[in-house]
Amino acid sequence: MNIAIKSETNPNVSCSNCKACCCRLEVMIISDTGVPETFIERDQFGSETMRRLDDGWCAALDRDTFMCTIYENRPWICREFEMGSYECIEQRDATL
Fold first, then answer.
1. Integer Cα distance of 15 and 1 in angstroms
2. By CB atoms within 10 Å of each CB, which of 30, 33, 49, 67 scores lowest?
């Protein structure tokens, strides 16, 4: 039997009314989604993460719109971070 389990999300949260709190998290790049090289940092072991600016924000974030400038090529973890999920709400609460 195949049962799909949907996580509980808050319908009052949308990316259009958010200040991109998730864009301050460290994002590891674990699969090839086409992230442009200018947004990738590599450590001494070759691990890749999204480049963040000095203030901690993701370098791919458009500061005027709070939208991702590489949305179609964003890392897998960004694709999986569900809007309005427990993790999203927790991150929003921590930064407000």
1. 35
2. 30
Q: Residue 58, class by beta-carbon neighbours within 10 Å (0-12 exposed, 13-18 middle, 19+ buried)?
A: buried
Cα–Cα dist 60/36, whole Å: 10
Q: Taking the domains of the chain in order of start, what are their residue ranges?
A: 15-91
Q: Greater confidence, 5 or 48?
A: 48
Pairing of the two strands 48-50 and 61-62: unpaired
What pTM was computed for the model?
Answer: 0.76
CA distance 54 to 14: 27
CA angle 61–79–57, rounded 5-degree value: 25
Distance CA 6, CA 53 (A): 34
